[in-house]
Prior knowledge:
By secondary structure, the chain is an alpha/beta fold. It is built from six helices and eleven strands. 26% of the residues lie in helices and 25% in strands. Strand 9 (200-205) and strand 10 (211-216) form a beta hairpin.
Amino acid sequence: MRILITNDDGINAPGLQVLTEIAHALAGPEGEVWTVAPAFEQSGVGHCISYTHPMMISRLEERRYMVEGSPADCVLAGLHDVMPDARPDLVLSGVNRGNNSAENALYSGTLGAAMEAALQGVPAVALSQYNGPANRDLTDTFEAARVHGLPTLRRLLDKGVWTRDDYGIFYNINFPPVPAADVQGIKATRQGFRRDMGFGVQPHNAPSGRRFLWVTGAPQQQPTSPGSDADMNLKGYISVTPMRADLTAHDALEALKAIE
């Protein structure tokens, strides 16, 4: 198996090293693992691409490249520049530091990379490690992902739904904020929504008098809708959520025919 890996935390992120280990084990001794990752952290950029300016790409070593761009840029670079004559069988993105459950998925560069791969017709999976009181003081905060990542991916590749239609399915995996030994299992989940927990801004005035805004997040340990990805993560389960890039509200189409 030929695997392309990327992330949004940057080429030197510890989560990318975890994913590298998982990918090599998944690819097997006869397989290949190629890395094309951002030069700097790109958290929160979603599915952004560098449409209006060029991006520099640098070869660091065999099958390992760094791109001054977004995670989606990295997928484009990997498919069309680094590996144009030998496309990957699978794209893996992560392992993100922090969860991409619920509404976080909409902002995630980790998911943006997987989405771009799916749009390009390549099977893709995003992987993220939820953080919380039970795992933040571990020697390895990625322990749950490191231990359970490979068997979860193998099960998904064997049992998952993989389509090659216009908006092909990609997957969002979140590992729970617990030590590996406390993981309860795997749950197929929908994307949740944390009410009253959206992003905001906090203003600061610089010594120069200029006004700056820091984007603020919200607590990630509060309960969310039952059975959703974040809910199951907080109960100790690995969540696996099938996703598509199609933004159509299909449930509203029939009612909307009244305007015709």
